[in-house]
Automatic annotation (TrEMBL):
It comes from Pelagicoccus albus. This is AraC family transcriptional regulator. Gene3D superfamilies: Homeodomain-like. Pfam families: Cupin_6, HTH_18. One of its GO terms (molecular function) is sequence-specific DNA binding. PROSITE patterns: HTH_ARAC_FAMILY_1, HTH_ARAC_FAMILY_2. Residues 253-351 form the HTH araC/xylS-type domain. The keyword Transcription regulation applies. SUPFAM superfamilies: Homeodomain-like (SSF46689). It comes from the Bacteria. Keywords: DNA-binding, Transcription, Transcription regulation. The keyword Transcription regulation applies.
Length: 354
């Protein structure tokens, strides 16, 4: 029998109802598996961002303040967690972003960037916090000892209207470049969205004076940071971040996965395009649309971010790092690092120790 062009053969063949349902079920099952697999891959890659945080001598403080109060923060800490226990606070970042925190709410800020935390958006700064957590009054006098009222407890008095917890990573080497660069300058999570027991625990532990307490607080900060970022990542607004959106793109997501999993591979635009089955022009165009830069520029940035993290490990030589991140020699890595980041690997290593 001869069928004309365009003849719909499936209309002429009637499958048994049970078989038709089975086919639909199989299709549905495969679709769900694909969605689950995509989600798992995204979170596996996200998990790699959270491998690095390890506080060492973190700054932790209970702040007890009576209104009106306003802290101008210019401390340059790599990452800072702010949690409200009592009263409300308003954070206004210099980039224009702002949020309000009620009891149980938490926020994370990252360097670089300055911001103000106050009891009310209109309250002018009454305390200035400079690098090294150096607290000053508007007239320049030191307030740290003057306002200390107990173990890691600072402010006006123990019955103040506002109680705020502050925990900061103080060294760039404590938090990976990749994690810092993946986060916005300020993010926040509401109490009803996560309801974690970690904040009450931190509140209790900060004021405790016991052997090994600094190590306890360091590990608590690591857990709290991971918990907050994970919850924020799962929220809808985090998906506006380009790095998250890119992973959801079928073409770009595959390229990112290859680069992330094997940065030492001698990738070229041609080899990446061949792997995903498109032309170089198609890949370059789509990658630029989704990520905002070319595949090769992204590859360079990723390799140098990995190198920056590895430079914080004293046992890693520059030659070993170069080999691990895809550079033919220590000289090639040094040249790229200085060109893109503005400082040499040696300077970066020295700064990460500070």
């Amino acid at each position: 029998m001869r069928f004309g062009i365009g003849c719909n053969l499936c209309c002429c063949v009637h499958l048994p109802q049970s078989l038709a349902k089975s086919g639909k079920s199989e299709h549905s099952r495969k679709t769900q598996e694909h969605k689950r697999s995509s989600k798992v891959n995204k979170f596996d890659e996200f998990s790699s961002l959270l491998e690095g945080p390890r506080a060492r001598g973190a700054f932790t403080l209970r702040g007890l303040l009576n209104a009106p109060w306003s802290l101008r923060i210019e401390a340059e800490s790599p990452l800072t967690v702010i949690a409200m226990i009592r009263g409300e606070a308003h954070i206004r970042h210099d980039n224009g972003k702002s949020c309000s925190l009620a009891p149980g709410d938490v926020a994370i800020t990252r360097a670089p960037g300055h911001y103000t935390v106050a009891d009310h958006p209109d309250t002018a700064p009454t305390i200035f916090v400079n690098p090294g957590q150096d607290c000053r009054a508007p007239d320049g006098r030191s307030l740290f000892e003057e306002m200390m009222i107990g173990t890691r407890t600072w402010g006006h008095d123990s019955n103040a209207s506002h109680l705020m917890l502050v925990a900061s990573y103080e060294s760039m080497s404590d938090v990976s470049d990749r994690l810092r660069e993946a986060l916005p300058p300020i993010l926040w999570v509401k109490n009803e969205d996560w309801d974690s027991p970690l904040i009450p625990l931190l509140n209790a532990e900060i004021a405790r004076d016991a052997p090994g307490q600094a190590a306890v607080l360091d590990r608590l900060l690591d857990m709290i940071l991971i918990a907050i970022v994970r919850k924020w990542f799962d929220r809808q607004d985090s998906r506006e971040m380009p790095w998250y959106e890119a992973k959801g793109d079928r073409l770009v997501g595959r390229v990112l996965k290859m680069i992330h999993q094997d940065p030492a591979q001698a990738w070229t635009l041609n080899s990446l395009a061949t792997k995903v089955g498109v032309s170089r022009a198609a890949l370059a165009r789509r990658f630029q649309e989704v990520v905002g830069q070319s595949p090769m520029n992204f590859l360079t940035q990723w390799r140098l971010a990995l190198a920056a993290d590895l430079l914080s490990e004293p046992e890693q030589t520059l030659e070993t790092i170069a080999e691990r991140v895809g550079y033919s020699s220590a000289f090639s890595l040094s040249s790229a690092f200085k060109r893109v980041r503005g400082i040499s690997p040696k300077e970066h290593r020295e700064r990460s120790k500070a």
